[in-house]
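Lab manual, section 2.4: Encoding a predicted structure.

Procedure: take the sequence of the chain (297 residues), apply the prediction step described in section 2.3, and record the output as structure tokens. A sample record is shown.
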Amino acid sequence: MTLFKKPWKLADGFLFGGALILAGFIVQIAAGPVDWGLVSSPVNLILLSALLAVLAVAFVNRGKSGFLAWLGSSSAAVPAISCTLLLTIVMGLTAQIPERGWLGSMTTFWPFVLCYVWLTVVVGLVALNHMPLLGKTWRVVPSVLLHLGFFVTLVCAALGSADKKDLEMTIHEGETETLAVADDGTSYDTGLSVRLNDFTMETYPSGMPKRFASDVLVRDKSGKETAAVIEVNKPLEVGGWKMYQYGYDEEAGTESTVSVLELVKDPWLPFVYAGIFMMLAGAFCLLVTGFKREVWK
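Recorded output:
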């Protein structure tokens, strides 16, 4: 097709972005918002494999198609960043309450998701385009680290969101609990056995809570036991979960024998951190190489 063989320019990128946003509106009307629950493991791993395969094919064939060559260029990066940033600003200015309509849940809004995917593809191709130069000059190292780190962060933050669990566990003193509940009321077996030995609370003279904490004994799937005191801003990490002190029986106050813990699991978070670290390393290398060029002028 001539459309995909001809050289693409910056203006074409903004037209492509507009068309993508329009397509997103059409899909939103026809199919409803994005259901991220459908891409939980192993679906997200399959999607990741498909994305990497698409990037590999696009990279290998970039010399045969003006469109594929454009996708890995600044002429695609500028409009992709612009469109995604515009929708991100809208998200920042709009209360993210799903009941308020499309703009109240931007992460499930098809125009935003499609622009996010477009940006991810562009960043991935730019990183691939720079990699063959690594054997020729070390000056591309900062660019590779920046773009590859950005790609890893974008991909893992999106695909990993489906596997993230944020649950509440309510335990009475002297009892043991294994189940926790999501916002929608669904119960999950956490794989942990949590016994609440004691719940304590300290208050200010005015009666306002000063400190409240849970003395717990936690057993993971392997049978390993961990004794700890969980309090606000001092979570316990065990069995892949982070356990936070969340609440208590407010009616009973200082006499509460009930503790509410928040359990959070995000298995993709280490990869997000790795991507951020790569970007920081790339930025540092860029500063160093830029400084050296100035010195040796």
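Check your result against the sample. The first helix runs from residue 2 to 5.
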